[in-house]
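## retry 2 of 3
previous attempt timed out at serialization; input unchanged, resubmitting
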Amino acid sequence: MKSYSVKKLAQLARVSVRTLHHYDRLGLLKPSVRTESRYRLYGEQELMRLQQILFYKELDFALHDIKAILDDPDFDHRTALESHKQALMARRDRLSVLLTTIDKTISTLNNKQTMMTDDELYAGFSKDKAEAYRREAVDAYGADVVAKSETHLRQKGKANFEKLKAEQQEIGQTLASMVGMDPASTAVQQQVARHYANILAFWGNSVPESERLVAYKGLAQLYVDDLRYTSAAGAENPAYAAFLKQAMVHFVEQQSA
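## retry succeeded, writing output
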């Protein structure tokens, strides 16, 4: 069986030896063998586990959450890789949006512009699709609510609006990578709390405080009924939509208890 010293593994994975020692102390990545001289040796299985650790770290998971995921008896390596692929593709798209945002923000600062136009508010959608989304929102929530929400977002300014959208995409990709976990688990619910706060930032005062949890629960059902709202990289993901609905409904129930 091929084995790697801690120094060699650190070089392959582009991490420090100190990092591997830290993972060992946490029980996150134990060497397969310790020699009589106390040298750590790692095998192919540890190499694959380290790859998973680094993927989850790239998606901003805490080390204790990564350990819980990898130690789960139901953990499936192939499913995890597919999830990582979707999440990283979403991150790639988010970074592309951020680069565009930077260019627009620089232009805005140079031209002393602060308010967004309707086209900028629905950037990324074709004109027909943007109009369709707006009509659906009006039908679901009423024209007054939609108008108040749009005014709120315009007043935030372009840079803050793009930051809000980027945060939403990051939260979405993190939650998508958690499909298969218990929707009621602490790690998932922490992300759902971030998701709820992000949604409220989009809504502003357009939804009364007393109605926000009910509206959020309604949004959970919308994700299942209309997979466009949970699609990533152009592909619908029913499993993610169902998982997200369960997690959101649990969050509402806990907040309402």
